[in-house]
Amino acid sequence: MCKEACDGEIARLYGPGERGNGSLYDLILDYPLRGGKALRPALSIATCLGLGGHLEAVLPTAATLELYHNAFLIHDDIEDESWWRRGKPTLHIDHGVPIAINVGDAMLSLSLQPLLDNVERVGLGPALRILRAVAKMTRLTVDGQALELDWVRSNSWRLNDADYLKMVELKTSWYTFITPLQAGAIAAGAGPERMEPLESFGRHLGAAFQITDDLLNLRGDPQEYGKEIGGDLWEGKRTLMLLYTLRHAEPKDQDRAIAILAKRRPSPDGEELTDLLDRLAAQGELSQSGRAELVARLQSHQPSECKSISDIRWLFELMLDVGALRHARDVAATHARQAAAVLATLDWFPHSRHRDVLADLVDYVHGRTR
Amino acid sequence: MCKEACDGEIARLYGPGERGNGSLYDLILDYPLRGGKALRPALSIATCLGLGGHLEAVLPTAATLELYHNAFLIHDDIEDESWWRRGKPTLHIDHGVPIAINVGDAMLSLSLQPLLDNVERVGLGPALRILRAVAKMTRLTVDGQALELDWVRSNSWRLNDADYLKMVELKTSWYTFITPLQAGAIAAGAGPERMEPLESFGRHLGAAFQITDDLLNLRGDPQEYGKEIGGDLWEGKRTLMLLYTLRHAEPKDQDRAIAILAKRRPSPDGEELTDLLDRLAAQGELSQSGRAELVARLQSHQPSECKSISDIRWLFELMLDVGALRHARDVAATHARQAAAVLATLDWFPHSRHRDVLADLVDYVHGRTR
C-alpha cells in the first residue's frame, strides 16, 4: 500500500502530466516503477504515521527521497558499467549514456520544488527543517562517496572496521535511513529532541544493511539480487571483508592482493575484441604485426594491466581463508542488534503496525546476514 | 573584481576546506577556476549592487548559480563527447567518465545548503523567493533540454522560429539570464513587481545569446571559442539556422538534409579504428573476411549509418545557400535591440556602473552577432 501510494505520488510530482514532451518524463519514472523495495519512502511514511502524522504530510517528501535515490542509481549504473537493474537492462544500456546522465540530472534538479511546497503542506518551520535535513544528507553522502573513491584510487588498505563504518555512515546511513526517518518524524510534528535517537537507530541499521549488501554482492543469486555479482571486487571497493582480508593475510598474500587491486577493471568491450583478434591471428587472417598494432590501439584507452577472472577468484578464496565473510556477518549482526536495542528505547514512538515496519526492517536486514 | 569575489566564494563554499579527502573537492573547483566568463554571477552581483543591495547578500547565491552551471557543463561535455573546455581537456577526458559524473552530481547536490543559509543572510521571505526561483529555473531548464533532445531523437523539423525561441527560453534564458537577474534583485530587497521586467529583459538577451552561440559553434575560431566546431551539426541540434534551412530548401535538398540528420554521429574511436583496419587490409596484414568481421563487431555498438564529414559540409553549404546564417544574425540582433529597449524602461534601476554591466552585456552579445 505504501509502495503504491509512493509510486502514485512520484508519477503525480514527476511524471509527464500535462507536459507535452513525454519521453524524458517517461524515463524519469522508469527506475522507480520497476518495482524496487522503496525502502526510503517506507521508512518516512511509517515514521510519520507512527508518530501521529498524516500520509499527505509526508508523501511528497517520501516520493522525493525515492526519486533522489533512483537518480543516483541511474548514474551509479553508468559509473559501475552495470548492465542489469531490477530485472531489466540499465537505463544507459537501453537509451545510451547521454540520455541516462540527462535523466538523472533532471531527477536531481526537479527534487527541490516538492520540498519547497512543503511550506504550504506542513508549515514553514518543519518545511525548512526537512530542507536542511536533505541538504545535510546530500553533503554527507557526497563526502562518503568521495572517501570511497579516494580509497580505491589511492589503493589504500591500512583501514580498519571503524574507518569502513565511518565511510558507510556517510555514504549509506544518512541517505538510506537517518534522513528518511527524520523527515518522516518532522512531517509528523516531532521536535528536534527526537532527531538524535533516530540518527542512532539509522546509523546502526545502515551499517548492518551495507555490510550485508556487500556480502550479497560477493555471493548472491543473480536472479534474486538483480545486480552483477562480484562487481565490488572488480572495482576494488573497500568493503569490510576486503579490508579485514588485507589486514589478516600473510605478508606475501597481502602483497599479491594489493597488486591485484592496483590493476584496473577490464572493459567488457576490450575483452571481447582481444579474443576476436587472437582468433583471427590464429586463423592466419591477421598478421602478428597487425594484431600487435590493433591491441596497442585498443589498450591505449586502458593503459594499465587489467584484473583477470583468476585474480578475482584468488581474492575471494583469500577472503574465505582468513574468515572475512564470517567476521563481516558478525559485525552486521551486532549492528542489527544495536538498531533493535535503540528502537526498543524509543518510548515516545507508540507501538503500532507502523512501528512494526521499522522492527520488521531490522529483522529483514538481520535475516539477510545469515 | 566580481569574478575574483565569486571564485573566492566558490572556493569557500564548495572547496576542500577542512575536509580531509581533497580530490573530489579539488575537482569541484576545476571548471569554475578555469577562467570562464562567470556570466551568471556577474548578472546577479550587478543587479544586486545596482539596486542598492550588499555584495555579501548575493555572493553565495551567485557562486551557487555558477556552480550549478559548471555541473551541467561537466555532464554536457560527457553527453556531447567534447574533448576540450576552456583551453584544457574536459574533466571526463582527464579523469574518466565515472568521476566526471560523480563530480557533477556532487556539485548539484551541494548547491542546496548555501541557498538555505540565505535565510540568515537575507531573511526568510527573500531566501524562500530565491529558492523558488531556482526551483522554477531547474524545472524549465529540464523541460527545455527534454524538448531539444526530443526534436533530435524524433528527427523533427517542421518547427519555426517561434518554436525554437520557446525552446531557448526554457533551455537557456531562465538559467543563464532571468534567474540570475531575479535572484540578484531579490537579494537587494526588490519586490515581486520587479520580476516581470527582468524576465522580459532576460528572455530577449537569452535569445540573442543562444543564437550567436549557435552561430559561433558553426563558424568560430577554436582558439578563441574553446569548443569543438560544428558539433551542433554532428549532433543534429535544432538551431534556428538549421530549422530555417530545412524550411527554405528545395524539396530534394530538404529530403537529403533530413536523411543526413537521421544518421547518427560517429564515435571518434570507431572512426580511427576503421581507418586503421583499412590500412592493415591494404597492406595485406589483415584478410578481407577478418576486416569485415572486425568492422561488424565495431559497428554492433553503432548499428545505424553515421554522418560523414561530407554530409556536414553539404549541410553547411545549404545553410549558406538559403541565407540561414544571415537570418539568424538578424533575429539575434532584433532580440539584442529588444533587450536594450526593455533595459531602457527600467526607471527603478538607477544609472550606475552596475547597471552599465547589464548594458555592456547587451552590447557584447550584439557585437558577437557580427
From TrEMBL, chains A, B:
Belongs to the FPP/GGPP synthase family. Its cofactor is Mg(2+). It comes from Mycolicibacterium rhodesiae (Mycobacterium rhodesiae). Keywords: Magnesium, Metal-binding, Transferase. This is Phosphoesterase. It holds the Pfam family polyprenyl_synt. Pathway: Isoprenoid biosynthesis. Coiled coil: none annotated. InterPro entries: Isoprenoid_synthase_dom_sf, Polyprenyl_synt, Polyprenyl_synt_CS. GO terms for molecular function: metal ion binding; prenyltransferase activity. GO terms for biological process: isoprenoid biosynthetic process.
